[in-house]
Design brief:
By secondary structure, this protein is mostly beta strands. It has one domain: Porin, CATH 2.40.160.10. The protein has a 16-stranded antiparallel beta barrel with strand order 1-3-4-5-6-7-8-9-10-11-12-13-14-16-17-18. β12 and β13 form a beta hairpin. It starts with a helix and ends in a 7-residue tail after the last strand.
Amino acid sequence: MSNNIKRAALVLLAASSVGAAPANAADGEAAFNPAFSLILGGTYGNLQRDPAVPATGFATDQNPGHEQGFNIGESEMGIFANVDPEYRGVATFALAPAGGISVENAFVQSTALGNGVNLKFGRFFSGLGYLNEQHAHAWDFVDQPLAYAVLWNNQLGEDGVQLKWLAPTDMFLEVGGETGKGRNFPGTDTAKNGSGANVLFVHIGDDIGIEQSWRAGASWHQTQRIAATSTGVPDLPNTSGGVSDSFTGSSQTAGLDFVWKYAPNGNIRERYWKVQGEYFQRRESGNLTYDTAGKNITDTYAVTKTGWYLQTVWQYMPRWRTGLRYDRLDPGSAEVGALNAAYVIANYGYTPTRTTWMLDYSPSEFSRFRLQLAQDDSRQGLQDNQVFIQYIMSMGAHGAHSY
C-alpha cells in the first residue's frame, strides 16, 4: 500500500535540492544558483462593518482583520537553495501592501542527518496544528479561520530551533519539538537570554486503499506574556472607547487537528474531497492591570478560551473547487481578583461564529481566482456580510506543499 502522507513528507525533504548548483559546479557565481519565486496576490473586499472591531470577548487578543476595497494583499518573495551536501537555506519575504519588506522565514534545514531526523534553525512557521505551516497562497480560503486569526494572529512564527523525527514505519508518524524566543503573539518579544516559548507536536496518518488518506495531530504551546497591553477593551461600566489593560502571565495552548482526503481512483488532478478541522484551548493566568491610564489597579486574572473550525473543499471537476467553512470561538469565563471584580467582564455570554463559502478556478497550477462570501457573527450585534474576490499568481521555482 502506498502512503501518500509519508511520500509528501519525503517530497518536502527532496525539495531541498531544487535550485541547488551541482556539487562539481565551477567556483564563483556559477557555483551559487539559488531558486527564486514570487507570489503576487490581491483582493477586493466588501465589508459592512469596521474590520478593526475585535471579536466579542477577545478584545485582549489579536485582530488581523481584513482590508476594505482594493488591496494588493501580501505578496511573497522566496529564495532557496542547497548550501552544501548537508544543509539547505530558505528565505521568504513578505511585501506589505503599504510598502516595506518583512522577513517571513529565514532558516537553515539539515538534509543529511539520516534516520528520519530533521533539524531546522532560524525563523520559521511553527509546526503546531495543521494550517500553521502553510503560506498564505496555499490557504483554501481568502483568510484564516477565526481560531487562527484571534489565537495566533493568523500564524505563529518563531525564531529558534525545531527538531523533527519521521518514524521508519509504514504508518506515518512524526514527532517534533521547538524552542524559541517567543517573539510573536501570544508571546512577547523581549530582550532576554534563554527560551521564551516551547512547542511539542505529534502527527500520525495513513492511507485507506488508493483513494483515501488521513492525518491527525496534537500540539502544545507554552509562552510568557510580559506587560502585554490591550487598548479599547470594553469594561463593565461601559467606559466610552474602552480602557487600556496590561497582562503579565503564562499562556498555554493545547490543540488537536485532523484532515481526511478522498480522490476517486487516486487521481487528485480530476476530482478530490478534503475535510479538515482544528481545535485549540488556551489557558492564561497571571496579573492584570486594569485601566493603566486611570485607575491602574493590578490583581490576579485567569481565563480559558477556545476556538475551532471545520471546513470542506471539493474539486468537482478539473480546475474548479468549492468550499464551506464554519468557525466558532468561546471567550470563557474569566477568574478575576477581588480588586478588579467590578471592572472586568467575567462572562461575555456570547460565542462568536462565522460561516464562509468559496468558489475558485485555477487556469493552471500557477494561478488561481477566488470568490468568497461570509456571514461574520464574531461581534455581538454587528453581523457582517462579506464579499471577497482574490487572485494568486505564482512565478519562478516553488517547492512542494505539505500534505
